[in-house]
Design brief:
Layout (H helix, E strand, L loop, with lengths): L21 H10 L15 H15 L2 H5 L6 H14 L2 H7 L5 H31 L9 H17 L6 H11 L5 H10 L7 H34 L1
Length: about 230
Amino acid sequence: MSSDGVHKLPSRCSSGNGSSDGHELVVQQVKEAGVTVRYPMLLENNYGVWAVKMKIFMRAQGVWAAVEGDGVVDDKKGQMALAPIVQVVPEAVVLAIVEKDTTKEAWDALKEVHIGEDRVRKANVQTLKRELERMYMEDVETIGEYAMKLTTIVNKIRAVGTKVEETTVVEKLLHTVTDKFQYIVGTIEQWGDVSKMSVIETIGCLKTYEASLAGQRRSKEGEQQLLLTRAKW
């Protein structure tokens, strides 16, 4: 602790008994209250939930004051507050936060970085959602080609932590295919339960209908060719 009463970030996350494993200290402290906590890992897209859970767990241990930076925090509580943070952040992040003077500064640095990343993520999600909204099947595309293009966008949105319901994708498929699929789409919506259909099932129905249309077209072309041949006779 510095002369001005502010707790300084410890250079090592020791438990006070010579061990360098801060996680052991945290688990032991929680066990004294009859509870064992498994701290959540900080990932690229879970900062909001991670921060809430860490706050709850650290309050339960009585060390959240070290993160808030209110009042004088003794060295043991400072280490106990830092230990679980160090355990659950990537190694590259550990190297960055140990340069901070206080546990509060380390926590605030994590927040600043991830809130910024979260804003970028949300902007990317909005861009992908707009792309999805504008997407329609082109006349030259097959169902397989269009479905691949659509599901690729959906998977990109899901990959950054945003939920896209299966029903939303099914309805998007049915409402954006070309006019030649109107009959099968109407049949599905009238006799099927769209809310219970999977994307794979929907694609399968559309592909089957597409194949039947192709078969009918080939049959007509064959009949026309036969008529032309007979006319030449």
